[in-house]
Specification:
This protein is about 35% helix and about 15% strand. It is built from nine helices and 14 strands. It has helices spanning about 15-25, 45-60, 75-85, 100-110, 225-230, 240-255, 260-280, 310-315, 340-360, and strands at about 5, 65-70, 95-100, 115-120, 145, 150, 155, 170, 190-195, 205-210, 285, 295-300, 320, 330-335. The strands form four sheets. It has a seven-stranded mixed beta sheet. β6 (about 150) and β7 (about 155) form a beta hairpin. α2 packs across α6 and α6 (about 240-255) crosses α7. About 45% of the residues are buried. It catalyses: O-phospho-L-serine + 2-oxoglutarate = 3-phosphooxypyruvate + L-glutamate; 4-(phosphooxy)-L-threonine + 2-oxoglutarate = (R)-3-hydroxy-2-oxo-4-phosphooxybutanoate + L-glutamate. It is an enzyme of class 2 (transferase).
Length: about 350
């Protein structure tokens, strides 16, 4: 069976070259006589894999020396609790910007630990935009400011990095990390589930500034303390070794393409191609304000929703998979992460035009 174009929001497509390398190394990694899945996480073979992956990620993102990089379990959802547990310190509250489903989940979890100030929300307009800097009502004494730069479900993306004064900025970058260069020094912490732009589900990356580590709430379990994982090089317990290995292969793949500057150009062109197809038609529509549109997750609706099932069925027949929108918003959603080739977006646009010509 030939490979399909997988538009899933996550777990998402991985680069074919990465999968092929993993396949070739499945039974015997680098002459070790073992699969990476069978290696001790404390053995010299895996330790070399882990160190190289971290070094490549630091190079790709230009991570400053005063930031620690952690390879964790639990998904980004575990970070929703770990962040207030570790970052509140002596303070009683934190600021959160609400721009969609994942922001709301982070807010709900944070409320278990602290007073949450909603610095801005776009819920009143069905999360079709992002708030401007001027619209942010930031607290004078917030422990930190949390936001979601890209909302996977709604396809909403911040076109700027919020200014937060002395409060560290915390970002859930699960669906946008590695899609373009960013200035890591603007953030106190960046975290991301791997299953969109990094690797398979089960791995989470956390990039944390040194001064934010080591002041967890007294009740915080050892496994939920960032200091625990820093002190043990992400190996306090057995880490997700195979996910870490695959992430390392993805980092190599990105470096081979020319790094994040090159990836940004590819991603912007893919997104523009799809948005132009939507905007150039009365048959399709995108609900997000243009300045807040995501490069990674492109939702769109059909003028006649009664045709949704037929659209999806026809798409699957030509190898365009997982285009159904999230159950909370309906319609369609094309997630076009780093591993989605331009050819996949071109084929989707071609299919959309063919479907419109038959049903418009």
């Amino acid at each position: 069976m030939s490979r399909v174009f997988n538009f899933s929001a996550g777990p998402a497509a991985l680069p074919q070259a990465v999968l092929e390398q993993a396949q070739a190394e499945m039974l015997d990694w680098n002459g070790s006589g073992m699969s990476v899945m069978e290696m001790s996480h404390r053995g010299k073979e895996f330790m070399s894999i882990a160190a190289e992956a971290e070094a490549d990620l630091r190079e790709l993102m230009a991570i400053p020396d005063n930031y620690k990089v952690l390879f964790l379990q639990g998904g980004a959802s575990s970070q929703f609790a770990m962040i207030p547990m570790n970052l509140l310190g002596e303070k009683k509250g934190a600021d959160y910007i609400n721009t969609g489903a994942w922001s709301k989940k982070a807010i709900a979890e944070a409320k278990r630990y602290c007073d949450v100030n909603i610095a801005a929300t776009t819920e009143g307009t069905s999360f079709s935009s992002t708030p401007t800097q001027a619209e942010l009502n930031l607290s004078a004494d917030a422990a930190y400011v949390h936001y979601t730069p890209n909302e996977t479900i709604g396809g909403v993306e911040f076109p700027y990095i919020p200014e937060t004064g002395d409060a560290p900025l915390i970002a859930d970058m699960s669906s946008t990390i590695l899609s373009r260069p960013i200035d890591v020094s603007r953030y106190g912490m960046i975290y991301a589930g791997a299953q969109k732009n990094i690797g398979p589900a089960g791995l989470t990356i956390a990039i944390i500034r040194d001064d934010l580590i080591g002041d967890a709430l007294e009740s915080t379990p050892s496994m939920f303390r960032y200091a625990t994982h820093v002190d043990n090089d992400s190996m306090y317990n057995t880490p997700p070794t195979y996910g870490w290995y695959l992430a390392g292969l993805v980092f190599k793949w990105l470096k081979g393409l020319g790094g994040l500057e090159a990836m940004a150009g590819i991603n912007q062109a893919k997104a523009q191609l799809l948005y132009d197809a939507v905007d150039g038609s009365d048959f399709y529509a995108n609900p997000v304000e243009k300045e807040s549109r995501s490069w990674m997750n492109v939702p769109f609706t059909l003028a006649n929703p009664d045709l949704d099932a037929e659209f999806l069925k026809g798409a699957q027949e030509v190898g365009l998979m997982t285009l159904k929108g999230h159950r909370s918003v309906g319609g369609m959603r094309a997630s076009i992460y780093n591993a989605m080739p331009r050819e996949g977006v071109e084929r989707l646009v071609e299919y959309m035009q063919e479907f419109e010509s038959k049903n418009g």
